[in-house]
Design a protein that fits this description.
The structure is a single chain. By secondary structure, the protein is an alpha+beta fold. It has two domains: 225 residues, Gcn5-related N-acetyltransferase (GNAT) (Aminopeptidase); 139 residues, Gcn5-related N-acetyltransferase (GNAT) (Aminopeptidase, 3-Layer(aba) Sandwich). Helix content is 40%, strand content 24%. The protein contains twelve helices and 15 strands. It has an eleven-stranded mixed β-sheet. Strands 1-3-4-7 form a four-stranded antiparallel β-sheet. Helix 2 runs antiparallel to helix 9 and helix 7 crosses helix 10. The C terminus is likely disordered.
Length: 394
């Protein structure tokens, strides 16, 4: 085994990278990560410097990889560590740079230790983790963070000495529903009526919904959708890091894994949402609107996605981070994980105590929110959700 670091994912042929990542999870594909680099969505401009770890076997074939970035900030991670950075600063130390294994700007659960299926899984994973830890020392970083790891990778990383941190997102699970009405039939009468009323508001406004896959989208449709995407960030004083060129590239190279939802009023698009899909999951990523219409956000971002999952037999819908309002619409609180290595021993102990205490608080939060489940048989829904794991599908 030979481990090394590449600063351009294009230094690894797409077919080789995808042989370890697979193509089922859209955000792990070479095409997605390369498009971020091609259009300066990562790099110096936003402080995400690619430092991808790769392992080749004795024959020279790629056996494993980790999407890894050197960061000089904490923007676009969705696992918030600004209080850690402040503590480092107050102690007269530097928190940045740090190393982060994540999909930039994407709070979606998935694998981070990518291993070719026919390779020795434990050996390659160990080589990947050890190389990442070596890189902490070589780059003078304070820490190493693995964000939104699936259940299996979380366990592996904890066994390698990482601290586990717990968060809570809201996911929808497909219980084999035959139709949207079949899904509604599992909800309490009050919640069922509320959702039907929200969908009716959109219909009565004369708004027509349309779903377009990436291989069908035109340049003009992407211009409109990118304007929606950018307007949301500008309204919230955020930074729209993803360019129209990036979206066009993944649309062309990933085809039907890219999913656009348009809301039309006559010939004018008044709202839209950008989603990506895997083999068994749909991921809601961005949305925007030109005008405010009653319940249009719920229709565009949630109900159209649920409809799509039912129609296409997808088992999971992750609509994005945060949002307790999602519970009443069928998205139940689901635990998500990250793992962390702190190089400084004293700070490592302090952070370890913090994440242990935080874990108990998040469990209490999740359990409290479960009481607000809209499903008629809440116990049955919780059992189904637990059987599906914490959300790690990749």
């Amino acid at each position: 085994m030979h481990a090394s670091v590449v600063e351009r994912i294009d230094d690894i042929p797409a077919a080789d990278w995808n042989s370890v990542s697979g193509t089922a999870h859209p955000f792990l594909r070479h095409e997605f990560l390369a498009a971020l680099e091609h259009h300066d969505c990562v790099g110096e401009r936003y402080g995400w410097y690619p430092q991808h770890v790769v392992v080749h076997d004795a024959s020279g074939a790629l056996a494993g990889a980790v999407p890894l970035y050197l960061k000089d900030n904490s923007y676009g991670e969705f696992v918030f560590d600004w209080s850690w950075a402040d503590a480092w600063h107050r102690a007269g130390k530097r928190y940045y740079p740090k190393l982060v294994s994540a999909i930039p700007y994407t709070p979606v659960t998935g694998r981070r230790l990518l291993v070719r299926p026919d390779a020795d899984q434990d050996t390659v994973r160990t080589a990947l983790v050890n190389k990442a830890l070596e890189l902490v020392q070589a780059t003078g970083c304070s820490s190493l963070h693995w964000l939104f790891t699936d259940d299996e990778d979380t366990g592996v990383l904890v066994r390698h000495g990482m601290m586990r941190r717990t968060s809570c997102h809201f996911h929808w699970h497909n219980a084999g529903y035959r139709s949207f009405d079949d899904f509604l039939s599992c909800l309490t009468s009050r919640k069922r009526k509320k959702i039907r009323r929200e969908r009716r508001y959109v219909d009565e406004a004369g708004i027509r919904m349309e779903i377009i896959h990436g291989d069908e989208a035109t340049d003009e449709q992407w211009r409109i959708m990118h304007d929606f995407y950018r307007s949301t960030f500008e309204r919230k004083s955020g930074i729209p890091t993803l360019s129209r060129g990036f979206f066009r590239e993944i649309s062309q190279r990933m085809g039907r894994q890219v999913l656009l939802v348009f809301a039309w009023l006559g010939d004018e698009a008044v709202a839209g949402a950008i989603n990506l899909r895997g083999d068994d999951a749909l991921y809601g990523r961005h949305w925007g609107c030109r005008e405010q219409y009653h319940s249009l956000h719920f229709e565009t971002c949630y109900y159209q996605g649920i409809d799509y999952c039912i129609d296409h037999g997808l088992g999971l819908f992750e609509p994005g981070a945060q949002g307790e309002h999602k519970i009443s619409r069928g998205f139940l609180p689901t635990l998500t994980w990250s793992t962390h290595w702190i190089d400084d021993a004293a700070f490592r102990q302090a952070v370890d105590r913090f994440v242990a205490h935080e874990h108990e608080l998040v469990l209490d939060y999740r359990n409290d929110l479960q009481r607000y489940s809209p499903f008629r048989d809440n116990d049955e829904q919780q059992s189904g959700q637990q059987a599906a794991g914490s959300g790690g599908r990749a």
